[in-house]
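quick one
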Amino acid sequence: MDLDLIIKNATIVTATEILQPGLSIGIKSGQIVAIAFSLPVDADTQIIDAEGAYVTPGGVDSHVHLHQDNAPTGDKWLSGSRSALCGGNTTILAFATQKRTDESLFPVLEDYHSRASGRSFVDYGFHLILTRPSPEILGRALKRMVEEEGVTSVKLYMTYPAFRLGDKEMLEVLMRCREVGMTVMVHAENADMIDMITTRLLQNSHTLPKFHALARPQIAESEATHRAISLSTLTSTPILIVHMSSPIALSHARKAQSKSMLPIHAETCPHYMYLLSERLAVTRFPVVDDANRGHSHEHGVHGEEGGDGAEDEWAGARHVCAPPLRHAEADLQSVWDSVNNGTITVISSDHAPTQYNNPQGKRKPLVEAQKNNSTPTFAQIPNGLPGIETRLPILFSAATDPDPSISPARRLTLPKFVELTSTNPAKMYGLSGKKGSIAPGYDADLVIWYPSPPHDPAAAAASLSDDKIKIKIANDMLHHSIDYTPFEGFQVCNWPRYVLLRGELKWNRDIEVRQGPGAGILGKPGDGKFLRRGKGEVLVGRSGMGREPAGMRDGERSAWM
Ligand code: DUC
Ligand code: ZN
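structure w/ dihydropyrimidine-2,4(1H,3H)-dione:
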């Protein structure tokens, strides 16, 4: 068989099961070719001993913003993809953004290719953000994107003046995406509600970061979600609603999936599973918060109780994202419940960072206001959080941490972890058969974790003192170019020990721990290849032309569709 590499003594996890411990994974020419208890070794076969640890498919982070014009202090490809790798990701899907002035999509794609080319540590692809879906674009360009460029997904915004599409434009895009087989992502928030509330908050001098959460209430998300589902139903087009945070919005998705069998997919992110809007009101950072990992807690995050940072009334700007962090534990719980009852199809990071201490970053409103002698406002704070490197360790911990104080309601199973962070995003975005699973024929993109602590509570308590398996997240251990992480101080019980991209070891945390920051990165910029993707799969509901929506006669749509 002439194997290049064998990962021995693995406990392999797939989206459906945890395989019997002790298996070996045989790798040749970057692909998995065999899984067995014993594989033939020759003189050139390299061996990595997983020591019984869980081995999961490399993470597929299908929602990351790198080198975007509206985030000049955010991660570009080098730092963003490096951070992805060190957090266990081997594929990332980022955005190529059409500006309203861009008449053609092809120069846009070329521009974004040139931003990424030769710089990525991990494999990557692009979703197109459509802001001007002209007849030409709908007529030919999208089809060519699928057939010639391997770009098979678009993202549509229902909010943000620079990006927002009206319902008619969305309908036209949906109809065309169904025809050409593109996956449609939707950012669902009602723009006019947000605009009206923001204007009135500012008129009332409510300008601090904490008012960001009031400006984008849950009803703005739930109304737009319901509308997006209606548009999808009318046009019989599958959609994926990104970064869902609201219980009512999630209930709309669940009802559509379960009662009407519609192909409505839902994405969430770790920040909507762990962080509350009270963080927008903090006046010190880092925040002292024992609320992570699903412990129920009485006290929240308050400036006075805050960490060792200096007093700063703008500190909460670090947590400005859209949709905003929600107010209540019950909101977090509804997201967890939606993860576990199957409503959520994908958990991405929505890594969309901006530095804090930078005049072009989260503090920009303060700097500008000082120059113009005006008042800084929450509405000028760039939206988005970093999270590409912390997504997998946090969620893997939710699946494996033996700490009995973690609420069972805030856990997920290991197969569910694999399904939502790797297998499903690969399937949804046209990477089936290549990425997102551990099986013969797939790319050998693998994460080998540290051997888990025993599940016997006494033994677990003893081994929790081992630094390898009890890790406190700190920004200075991350590899992005951002000066904070919202997960500072969170305890996780594991971290990707080895990460392999197409059969080559690219991250070795043992070396990082021994030799210091950056030493564990064995990969280099340009290792990551652009992925020409196929058409995405529909994972929930019925695909293709379903029955007419309620109230229409059978076949009625054929008069206009
Ligand atoms: N919200 C978005 O819509 N995009 C990026 C970041 C964010 O918070
Ligand atoms: Zn985003």
